[in-house]
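anyone seen this seq b4? input:
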Amino acid sequence: QLQLVESGGGLVQPGGSLRLSCAGSGFTLDYYAIGWFRQAPGKEREGVSCITSIGSTAYVDSVKGRFTISRDNAKNTVYLQMDSLKPEDTAVYYCIAHPSGSTCSSPPYWGQGTQVTVSS
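predicted toks r here
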């Protein structure tokens, strides 16, 4: 059974860093587009970042220059390095997978989510 398992969330001060991990279980991530969505309390869920099967990346404007998505196919894992974190980055972050390999839009597979809280 295909599963996405996130880890790495937590509490961090403004300006700090966290690295989220998304490990694939029951399938190989290599041919999937993998991305991260987030949802803050009272807000709509939004796409944060995406990496395609060939390594192309995309970011929402609010995180450009601060977040970096990468994949390690040997470890069947995708990472989201989050630097210069701001309180407005506080949200539950979800890993997603899309079998097209080329888009993260309307993904059919979701992880359980990991909480990121940025606060002093």
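The longest strand covers residues 18-25. The two ends are 40 Å apart (CA to CA). kinda curious what u guys think
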